[in-house]
TrEMBL record:
InterPro entries: ACT-like_dom_sf, ACT_dom, HD/PDEase_dom, HD_domain, NT_sf, PII_UdlTrfase/GS_AdlTrfase, UTase/UR. The keyword Iron-sulfur does not apply. The gene is glnD. This is Bifunctional uridylyltransferase/uridylyl-removing enzyme. GO terms for biological process: regulation of nitrogen utilization. It holds the Pfam family GlnD_UR_UTase.
Length: 814
């Protein structure tokens, strides 16, 4: 254990001999650091190791720690791994074969005191072999450390017994200790963040750092992974050993230039380190470090999963059947805790498969399998331009998933798939921030902005534009010009490529151009000056929707920057600015019903039940039209029929003409082709007649998916991804469209059958749906209903909608 030395006065270890030994060691250390400035980092490590190992060997001979003496010095940590760094701890264990305490005290004092006196940071212990193995058995960190144990001096038999025993014990106990190993690793990752995306990364303990290589070494010792295979450059994540040496060299130089045993690379040392390693400037160093960190993190994440799956089954668990392949989307399944391709998937011809895999991973929190990533990287075709609607929807699902989006984007980026989708990403990948307030590299900051925006999705009428704005707001950085101006131009081009409607692409361009407007004005201008408010309103073209989305993006951007950037003070200033601008922009048009096509109006005149399915704008999109005599419950039953046939609703309009309801849906099947229109009509007719209770079936399925026994986030239940909203559901009451009518918008994370459940809630509240406009933006639903009711119906509507949405829903007035 590491500790300060006791007072040596009166101790048998204190004396001239120890003082001379300490003085010699201290002088040698100073000389090496002074004269070794021309040594490469690896050469300095070797020289530093030789210095200390030679001193320990000589000291051991001097004090009687020799072969056959029953005493041995064992090196742990960097000393054991042959990679001792300047200013690192010297980890030593004095092994003995049950020596009396008095004899051990004298030997230990003669070994420890000169090291303390030479200002060596010492981590030391005195143990028998059985005692050391007992500590390793009880302490995971100690067990991992002893896997690096190496004989330095003295009785080699004792050292060999410890080394062999520690490895044997590790292999035999790994099955029962794997959960603990995973837990401490995940806790460390959460605490220290990723090497690849921190502005000032922790080279030792960060995700993708040096400790992760030691973790993989330990899994290799346990014979659960192919550790040697990870060293090959052609492996999917790159060479683990090359990445490890990169981090080790940087950490060595960090010790040398800082004069301390630092693990966190502060920006102030970056230029000197990059010059010493002949890498370029600090930006080049950051990109090289990020690449190494990504490689190590990739191997650590896949290695842990491989190790868990490789553990032998015993007892009852050995009788359990192998994991099932659970379908998540077309061509995408979950198997053994990973997202993998279905057996009939065609990655060479299915351009949208990459994003379906990504969406499944982000929604469920289940990682994408390494083999799946490799196969997609090797064979996935280029996305058609413009992107199909479903591809854009899958991208929105990823961006709106919340924290799970980070790992999904990283997995795609590590294998080149993310840049293939977004070539502009290359300029901001691993780009260090120029502002010290930023915690992340620019690419990670963008992803973190999307994560924070997901929590605000239900606060805006267009969560899709908020998510895309988060993705694009800093896309112009790294090119030496005003990133807001350039980014606004790029947003137009990228929007067109991604399949965004031209007016929405123009909206995104304004969002990117002005994404710094609100915080700059709110914190630097007089908000009581009418010209300030008029200037902001004019800059935004008097668009209240742009103001609403910009307000949410400002909060998400600030929270993603670093600690303290978003505060109550800043939030209050921006709220005041937005409130004043809203007053100037008063007059926002309310939602209205879309007109029905003349063809459907002629069908309505027949007063029969009609169902038709026609191909949509892309391969997996279809339009479903259901026409029937109007009655209360028709909308919920129509939507329920679609949900029970695994048809997801992307958008819908509901209208009523002369006693006939016309419902138009844009849908996509979860798998394969949609059900035949004859089958949908049969079920729809049965539901309207009361012969088939489609709502009971849907409500039962929904309660199983969302009730107390529902799967947790990151799990998969009944083959359907389980999502958990990061934004609370919201009920927004808008001004009435006409006397006797109320307009209510419901914003919530989408789930199968949600539209049907909302429509049933309105019906149970005793109101009739006059018209509806339904949209699903990625994973967020924004459904507007115009209901025929008086103002006093609001309480009943709120109650029944809250029953569907849950108690966390917010009620607001627009």
């Amino acid at each position: 254990m590491k500790q300060d030395p006791p007072d040596p006065s009166g101790s048998s270890g204190a004396g001239t001999e120890n003082a001379r030994a300490a003085s010699d060691l201290a002088a040698a250390r100073r000389q090496l650091l002074s004269e070794g400035s021309g040594l490469h980092a690896a050469e300095l490590r070797h020289a530093w190791l030789d210095l200390h190992e030679s001193w320990l060997t000589a000291k051991a001979d001097e004090i009687g720690i020799t072969d056959g003496s029953g005493l041995a010095i064992v090196g742990i940590g960097g000393l054991g791994r042959h990679e001792l760094l300047p200013y690192s701890d010297l980890d030593l264990m004095l092994l003995h074969d049950d020596k009396p305490a008095e004899a051990l005290q004298g030997v230990a004092d003669k070994l420890w005191y000169p090291l303390w006196d030479a200002n060596v940071r010492l981590d030391h212990s005195v143990r028998t072999v059985s005692g050391a193995l007992g500590v390793a058995n009880a302490d995971m960190i100690a067990a991992l450390g002893m896997l690096d144990a190496r004989h330095i001096a003295g009785d080699a038999r004792l050292s060999e017994e410890l080394i062999a025993g520690a490895r044997r014990q590790w292999r035999s106990a790994i099955r029962s200790r794997m959960n603990e190993l995973v837990d401490i690793t995940q806790a460390r990752w959460e605490r220290c963040g990723r090497i690849a995306q921190r502005a000032e990364p922790d080279l030792k303990s960060g995700r993708g750092g040096l400790r992760d290589v030691q973790l993989l070494d330990a899994l290799g010792v346990a014979q659960l992974i192919d550790r040697h295979g990870m060293a090959r450059p052609e492996t999917p994540g790159g060479s683990l050993d090359d990445a490890y040496l990169t981090l080790l060299d940087v950490r060595t130089e960090l010790h040398r230039v800082s004069g301390r045993g630092r693990d966190q690379l502060l920006a102030q040392y970056a230029d000197e380190i990059s010059a010493a390693l002949h890498i370029g400037d600090r930006f080049d160093l950051a990109r090289k470090l990020s690449g190494a960190g990504r490689t190590i993190a990739y191997h650590a994440e896949t290695g842990l999963r491989t190790a868990e799956n490789a553990l032998p089954r015993r007892g009852v668990s050995a009788l359990v059947r192998r994991p099932k392949r659970r379908p998540l989307d077309e061509g995408v399944v979950e198997y053994a805790g990973e997202i993998v391709l279905a057996r009939d998937a065609s990655p060479e011809t299915d351009a949208g498969l990459v994003l379906r895999v990504a969406a499944a991973s982000a929604e469920t929190g289940v990682p994408i399998g390494a083999a799946t990533l490799s196969r997609l990287a090797a064979g996935a075709p280029e996305m058609p331009i413009p992107w199909p609607r479903e591809a854009l929807d899958d991208l929105l699902v990823v961006l709106s998933a919340g924290p799970t989006a980070v790992a999904t984007v990283e997995a795609l980026d590590r294998t080149g798939l993310w840049e293939r989708l977004l070539p502009e990403w290359a300029a901001i990948r691993d780009l260090p921030p120029r502002d010290v307030a930023h915690k992340w590299t620019v690419d990670r900051h963008v992803v973190e902005t999307a994560v924070n925006a997901a929590a605000l999705a239900t606060r805006v009428a267009r969560p899709d534009l908020l998510a895309l704005g988060a993705l694009l707001h800093d896309i112009g950085k790294g090119r030496g010009v005003d990133h807001s101006v350039l980014g606004a131009q790029m947003a137009i081009e990228m929007g067109a490529r991604l399949g965004v409607a031209p007016n929405d692409a123009a909206f995104l361009s304004k969002l990117v151009r002005h994404h710094l407007l609100l915080p700059v004005v709110a914190t630097r201008s007089d908000l009581n000056d009418p010209k300030t408010i008029e200037g902001v309103s004019e800059a935004l073209g008097g668009d209240p929707l742009l103001l609403e989305v910009l307000r949410a993006l400002t909060e998400a951007d600030s929270k993603a920057t670093g600690p303290g950037v978003w505060s109550d003070w800043k939030a209050s200033l921006i709220e005041d600015l937005v409130r004043r601008c809203r007053l100037v922009m008063a007059g926002e048009p309310l939602p209205q019903a879309d007109p029905a096509a003349p063809h459907y109006l002629s069908l309505a005149a027949d007063h029969g039940v009609h169902v038709e399915i026609t191909p949509g704008d892309s391969a997996r999109m279809y339009q479903v039209v259901m026409v029937a005599p109007d009655q209360r419950g028709l909308v919920s039953k129509a939507a329920a029929v679609l949900a029970l046939n695994s048809l997801g609703v992307h958008s819908a309009t509901v209208n009523s003409y002369e006693g006939v309801a016309i419902t138009e849906f844009v849908v996509s099947p979860h798998f394969g082709s949609p059900a035949a229109p004859e089958l949908l009509r049969q079920q729809f007719v049965g539901a309207l007649a009361g012969d088939i209770d489609v709502m009971a079936a849907l409500e039962k399925r929904d309660s199983e998916a969302t009730g107390p026994g529902a799967a947790r986030a990151g799990e998969v239940q009944a083959g359907v991804p389980v999502t958990r909203s990061t934004a609370p559901p919201r009920i927004v009451w808008l001004d009435p469209a006409a006397d006797g009518h109320l307009v209510v918008e419901v914003r919530a994370t989408d789930r199968p059958g949600l539209l049907a459940l909302l429509a049933r809630a309105l019906e149970r509240a005793g109101v009739d749906i006059g018209w509806a406009k339904v949209n699903t933006f990625g994973s967020t639903a924004a459904d507007v209903f115009c209901v025929e009711a008086m103002d006093d119906a609001r309480a009943a509507v709120d109650k029944h909608l809250l029953d569907v949405l849950g108690g966390q829903a917010e009620v607001a007035f627009g």
